[in-house]
Amino acid sequence: MVSFVTIKTVSPLMCFFNKSPLSCINAEPMYIGYVLSWSNLTSTIESGSTTTLFPEEDEDEDEAPSSSSSAAAARTTIVAMASSSSSPTTTTTEFIENFNRDYLQRHKSYEDNFWETKMNLKGNSVENLNTSFNALETFLGDQTTLEKVRELLKHGTVSEEQRIVLNQIEKTLKCYIVESNSAKALRESMMKKEGALQKSRNNLKTQYTDKDGNVVDTTPTVIRTKMRSDPVESVRKSCWEMLRKNGPFLLDNGFCDIIKERNRFARELGFEDFYDLKVTNAEGFSKKKCFEMLDGLEHATKPLLDKALERLKKEKGEDATKPWNTGFALSGELTKLTDPYYPFEYAPEVWGRSFSKMNIKYKGATMRLDLCDRKGKYPNGFCHWPTAPYKTQDGTFIPSETNFTSLATPDEIGSGNTALTTLMHEGGHAAHFSNIVQGSPLFSQERAPFSVALAETQSMFLDALCEDASWQARYAKNRKGETIPWELIERSIKERHPYKVFQLRGMIAVPYFEKALYEMDEKDLTPENVLKVADEIEMKIQGGLAGRPLMSVPHILADESSCYYHGYVFAEMAVHQTREYFFKTGDGTIVDNPRVGKELIENYWVHGSGNPGFLGLVNNLTGSPLKHDAWVKELGVEVEDLLKEEKAEYEKALASASSSSKDEIDLEMRAIFVHGDDVISDSKESGFVEACEKFRGWIYQEWPKTKIMA
After folding, report:
1. What DSSP string runs through 110-147?
2. pTM
3. Mean per-residue pLDDT of the chain
4. DSSP assignment string, 344-391
5. Which among 150, 321, 517, 644 would be 20 to 30 A from 278, CA to CA?
């Protein structure tokens, strides 16, 4: 059903459809009215009139919108729009409303194209992606708008709420203003190169050799899963070698030129290099400060790494340190034993039920979920917002629209656990952004100046629950409804806890690699040197060549995710500090505790990228500045002590678990399950639980082996 507002077009036009996450809003700014279209619904709003939209109900109105770019005619399209944000007679209220509307249309156009390209939908266009990106960047880089903001702040009639919004607009624009024509040309050039590289990457064949010597076409997700779970070493090695091919392929297809142009662009704007630009804009502190914090963590955990490597050799043998063997040595058989308790087809319902019990709501959001792997799909989970939520000047809340993807192969061993963790992670992002209530969508869009660390703290705090014995006692169940036995959790702790430092060191390796990459002289930026530096960083930080080669990490490729990974590291610090806070206060629990959702919303989520910022929010909630102490302390806990604590929590959870698997789940959200261009189910039709059941039926149909297992 279409949500509507009364629009007085004598003032700037505002109209919001709570409809498709893939509605395309793409227009130039100098127009005087709207035409909004969806299927057979078209409403025209003419300048100088007052219009209330009451579209006639029909059967198509409740259908899930198509996700294909071939349905362009069925998208919301702006063909006329007022734009008076730079008018000398514009009031502060009008300016903010105009700016928010104009920003959101460009943001949405780019996000629609981003989704179509990354999901490899029919008719997707890299050219359209580049065009919409440049339109968004141009809008955010408009010097005239920045001058108008400063004029209003200095001379305008401005309320305190409006001052907060104007300061946020100024803060955001300063991240994007490009006054130099040469810098603008570099920006457009590097985006074209990045688009071409992405297109080439989509055509890269991902293959491995099976135990019988057959070459098998597959996806990056299957490659990573097999490295953890396939019992045949030659298969694991073949998968690792496939990951190693990413580096030479990317470097032969222009990656070095992209690095050079990113650095030239950053230096044109007065930054040391591209890494310095990214971290300064996103986090509000310099690259130097960033690596001072990382150096402290690296120094504190190096002894733990050395101890873990020696233990691995002693317990598993020298071969376990080979990059294609380490993951299997730590989880191979255990992954197979625990796999039945994480059936992928139940993962969406488990995620929804767990969040609902913690009182996490999505505030009227619409979420599109593309959860299963397929060829040509972007090889990493993500969550983006075509509509970034905000509060209009009259107090109306505009809910978010979310595009959310993960990479499950339902019949692969270990894929269910991985996919569920991704659901908890990306669902945490979605919950965070859905609950941002500020006076502009700039507070709730995920790019600069939004803190990467703040965003990742929320998602990683929630996906960390999957390792808690108390959470597993409630939610890790096989297809018969039987709870994972304590013996498997105990074994998991014994086998994995001493080696958790490997994950930390793998995380910090990425920012150290990117730092080295962007600090290389242009003359040294050759494929051979880049590969050499990647190996050197792996050896120094991880103690050997990595099971996930640094050049196979997808974050380093895209403009928006490059020089980003430090955010995961700082977020993990905050996660451990936040967990410590919840365990020490109240009833000392997180799982199924409704207090958690309330405190996260009030203390972390509602502010968005506004003040007091990441470091301030962590300090406000936990009562302490951000430190790595809680993380390092947790890594250093002796196995026997941890087993004692976790068993007590497991038994307590079993005794208190009482929720029915048939209870309705209320997340205050519309969930649309899709697979590429196809819609599988829609919670608007019959509720979240039934949408999950339809999704489950589709899994059984597409992956018959899962139905046999059930």
Report:
1. HHHHHHHHHTT-TT--HHHHHHHHHHHHHHHT-HHHHH
2. 0.78
3. 85
4. GGGHHHHHHHHHHHTT---TTEEEEEEEE--TTS-SS-EEEEEE--EE
5. 150
